[in-house]
Amino acid sequence: MPLTPVPARSADVDEIHALRRDLEDWMADRGVDQWPRGSLPRDRVEAQVAAGEWWVVRDAHGLAATIRLLWSDPDFWGDDATPAVYVHGLMVARRRSGDGLGGALLDWAAAHGREAGVARFRLDCRTSNPALRRYYEGQGFVAVGERDFGTHRNVLLEQPVPAGDRTGP
């Protein structure tokens, strides 16, 4: 079945926020340092959805995954003017964990970047989350730097937008 993310609408805000909170709780319960509980307020999700940044994937049970795409990311990457697609908010519902949906969304985001004509594909994770870093490196990303936020550090990862003539995964 092809992956068909659709732009999030205002009606999706509560589900996106609930998925984020569920994953925050799941990580906290396991000692994973990535997204602290309550670190993404609902009103921020609402503003990001209104700005067209969120994409959602649904299955028969509801919201299955999300991804947030940006075309610049000064908060994490500074004033870098390199044409790039940036990923944040890659979330997969626990019921879909391990079925390749996260990787498929990354492929979709790369294809989206390719269609937009950018050369780089970028994302980040906390330096204190080696499992997520290994996952991203397994997807072809390479660490190119770090960003210190005072309370934590993030590793910045990127890869070239893969060449290809396909229009999506």
Keywords, please?
alpha+beta; Aminopeptidase; globular; disordered C terminus
Tell me what you see in this structure.
The structure is a single chain. This protein is of the alpha+beta class and 169 residues long. It has one domain: Aminopeptidase (3-Layer(aba) Sandwich), CATH 3.40.630. It is 33% helix and 28% strand. The protein has helices at 13-29, 42-50, 74-77, 101-116, 130-138; strands spanning 6-7, 54-59, 62-70, 84-92, 120-126, 142-148, 153-160. Strands 1-2-3-4-5-7-6 form a seven-stranded mixed β-sheet, with helices on both faces. Helix 4 (101-116) links the parallel strand 4 and strand 5 (120-126). Helix 1 crosses helix 2 (42-50). It starts with 5 loop residues before the first strand and ends in a 9-residue tail after the last strand. Mean pLDDT is 92; it is low at 165-169.
In short:
It contains five helices and seven strands.
